[in-house]
Design brief:
This protein is an alpha+beta fold. The protein has three helices and seven strands.
Length: 183
């Protein structure tokens, strides 16, 4: 298990300039709070930092918005995309009133699910991950002019292209909209 002392040492030894405290909101979007490495001492890493939970949609009302962003000391890694040396730190959200994990935090939900499986004997390990969904297009055009705006997209797999001629032929079959889902 990594300790706060280990992380503070890593910050100093490796010249880390920033610490990016990250968590997931209820819609699955990464949120973060970036702190200068000089303010991240052992206490901040062990106890966490207060933040305004009313800023996260679906969490807290303004009159009860205090929450704790508590670093998971075993989920710390260098950010490979940062232009300056930065540590990314995954965090739990904690209720300051009772010190319990916040029930609407997706990370807390995953931890509770794992604990439930272990307690029932169904399993002892849970693998949880995102399911990124996206679209790739062969052609995307947009217009933003004085008299109007619009966009056009095209892709060989679009249902509207079943009758289009392609070099090498067109096999004709395209799944309908939402046709790739079961059932």
């Amino acid at each position: 298990m990594t300790t706060a002392k280990d992380i503070v040492k890593k910050i100093k030894d490796e010249g880390i300039e920033w610490v990016d405290l990250r968590f997931t909101d209820p819609k699955g979007k990464w949120q973060h709070l970036q702190m200068h490495a000089g303010v991240m001492d052992e206490d901040a890493l062990e106890d966490g930092l207060m933040f305004d939970g009313s800023s996260i949609e679906g969490w807290k009302a303004i009159n009860e918005s205090d929450m704790i962003l508590k670093p998971d000391l075993d989920a710390v890694y260098p950010d490979p995309f940062s232009a300056t040396p930065m540590l990314a730190v995954c965090c739990d959200i904690v209720e300051p009133s009772d010190g319990q994990l916040y029930s609407r935090d997706p990370r807390s939900t995953a931890k509770r699910a794992e604990a439930y499986l272990k307690s029932t004997g169904i399993g002892d390990t849970v693998f949880v991950g995102p399911e990124p969904e996206f679209f790739m297009f062969d052609d995307v055009r947009f217009e933003d002019g004085y008299a109007g705006s619009g966009y056009a997209i095209d892709d060989i797999e679009l249902p509207t292209n079943t009758g289009k001629e392609y070099e090498g032929g067109n096999m004709g079959h395209r799944p309908r909209a939402k046709g790739g889902y079961f059932p």
